[in-house]
Write a structure and sequence with these properties.
176 residues; Cobalt-precorrin-4 Transmethylase, domain 1; five-stranded parallel β-sheet; 49% helix
Amino acid sequence: MTKALAKRKATKQAPAKKAARKTSVSKTTRLFTIGYQQTTPKAVLDELENAGVKLLIDVRAVAASRRPGFSKRQLSAGLNERGIGYLHFQALGTPTEGRLAARSGDQKALTSIYAKQLKTQHAKHEIAELNSLIETAGPVCILCYERDHRECHRRFIAEIIEERGVTIENLLAPQL
């Protein structure tokens, strides 16, 4: 079992008892979102730290990047240096055809493709886990590439979480 999976299981098991006692999520509970397009790793890490984020959840289907500092290992190491945890929720990433639609600016196709993705059992499980972590792990932020959350699939994740009574805040790191 990988360290990340063991950590996920440990985090998941302990909060389950707490979550059972709560009837609803407090409206003061927040989910942050951030994209790393046109910014540096330092700027993103500074923004997360300034917001008080304790856990970053990577919602890219492929946690790799041509941009130095944003691939899974590098990003996780940078976060760790600042006391911020890292998890990768692959099932909340956009499938290949959705990423192609986003790159071409076809928001209608992205919406349709990603809506199907969110109906998968794995994605439903990760949404439930995200919701639980928001309550138990301190301030949580979801990360993807696009700077503007309105052009990114993370807006759909945020909308689902917001319907559950969580306040959404979209962070913007300074541009290059």
